[in-house]
Amino acid sequence: MQLNYPNFYAVLTVATLGLFCQNSFAEGILMQIQPRDNEAVSAFNGKIKAWFSGNVSDRSPTLVILDSQGNRVDNGDVKLVIADRSELTVTTRPLSPGKFVIRYRAVTEDGLIVSGISRFSVKP
Q1: What's the pTM?
Q2: Strands 39-41 and 113-122
Q3: Closest by alpha carbon to 45, among 88, 81, 94?
Q4: Separation between Cα atoms, residue 8 and residue 79, nearest integer Å
Q5: pLDDT band for position 19 (cuts 50, 70, 90)
Q6: Based on the number of CB atoms within 10 Å of its own CB, is 3 exposed (0-12), middle (13-18) or buried (19 or more)?
Q7: What's the start-to-end Cα distance of the chain, in Å?
Q8: Which helix (H) or strand (E) holds 3?
């Protein structure tokens, strides 16, 4: 019996990639944030949203909004809805035109920390 090596290696490669892809989506990662990074918005609705993939847990999620002077401008009312795309939200008081920073942090069920920053500005 003769093995067809090109097909064997192709099947092995696809199977290996499938395992890596499955594992990469098991961890929580930031999928989207609103407002988007570096977005300039003119009609800001006072709500910041971040969506995560994977197994985000309800252990101390954080979503903090800072103005250009480093002052916190969110209302501290962080809410997490755990689903296939977990949603983290916070509201702000009305924002004056300027630049703002979003700091997010979530913990996966595996204990890994997903954190980062995003920037946006409110146009006059």
Answers
A1: 0.75
A2: parallel
A3: 94
A4: 49
A5: very low
A6: exposed
A7: 75
A8: none
